[in-house]
DNA sequence: TCTGTATATGAACATATGCTCATATATGAA
DNA sequence: TTCATATATGAGCATATGTTCATATACAGA
């Protein structure tokens, strides 16, 4: 197959996709996203349930927020986070299903 | 929701999934896998088409081989690589479709 | 065997990543 | 306002990552 016959992805698409997969490529973020896929959670709740430091969770949530994969709202002194990208959750669940059936 | 009421992923599943997503989290590997999804290719062909060094391509293919995402066979002096994990290709294509329709 | 082409691989390097620690900010109660 | 709780964030650090460079290995043809 010659170079000009290949289908190519645009730079923008490649960048977009790699950022999405990067977000899913870390055990901590997988665990956080999997929790948020079940229900919205406060930062402390995530930290306690997953046995992580408050700071580590907050940093990761900030990262996920930048990519618009999660959103948050204030509730008193707490911040309640929830998923904001169903497609990424769908990719995650698909990967889980595949992994658990191998 | 209390800690014991959460659904948790096994350590093994989390590790497995993060490795899979890590493989898809780099622009070079995305481009290589996308090429191989179209047809099997030699190392040099990939390097030429994608304008990468032979060494960089070989290193990445070695990486993808370790994860069993690609396989290879010899053809004379050339090594012909092809995809060996349909599910990962499916995840990639799904991400592409999503990205291009946003 | 010698030569050329194709691929693999180890070392080194620059950058990215994920965490901790310390501290800043924000809200609610007293 | 003052204090306690919840969250955010910057700096620093150890490790991981992706590439280049040099070189090793493997096969085909003369």
UniProtKB/TrEMBL annotation, chains A, B:
Keyword Repressor: no
Keyword list, A-Z: DNA-binding, Transcription, Transcription regulation
Record-annotated membrane-spanning stretches: none
Domain named HTH arsR-type: residues: 9-102
Statement: the UniProt record of this protein carries the keyword Aminoacyl-tRNA synthetase: no
Signal peptide region: none
CDD domains in the cross-refs: HTH_ARSR
Gene3D superfamilies for this protein: Winged helix-like DNA-binding domain superfamily/Winged helix DNA-binding domain (1.10.10.10)
GO molecular function: DNA binding; DNA-binding transcription factor activity
PANTHER family: ARSENICAL RESISTANCE OPERON REPRESSOR ARSR-RELATED, HTH-TYPE TRANSCRIPTIONAL REPRESSOR CZRA
The protein's name in its UniProt record: Transcriptional regulator
Lineage: Bacteria, Bacillati, Bacillota, Bacilli, Bacillales
């Amino acid at each position: 197959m010659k170079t000009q016959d290949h289908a190519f992805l645009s730079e923008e698409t490649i960048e977009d996709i790699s950022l999405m997969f990067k977000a899913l490529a870390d055990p901590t973020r997988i665990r956080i996203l999997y929790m948020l896929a079940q229900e919205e959670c406060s930062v402390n709740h995530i930290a306690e349930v997953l046995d992580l430091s408050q700071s580590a969770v907050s940093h990761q949530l900030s990262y996920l927020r930048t990519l618009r994969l999660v959103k948050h709202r204030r509730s008193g002194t707490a911040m309640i986070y929830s998923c904001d990208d169903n497609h990424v959750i769908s990719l995650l669940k698909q990967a889980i299903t595949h992994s658990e059936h191998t």
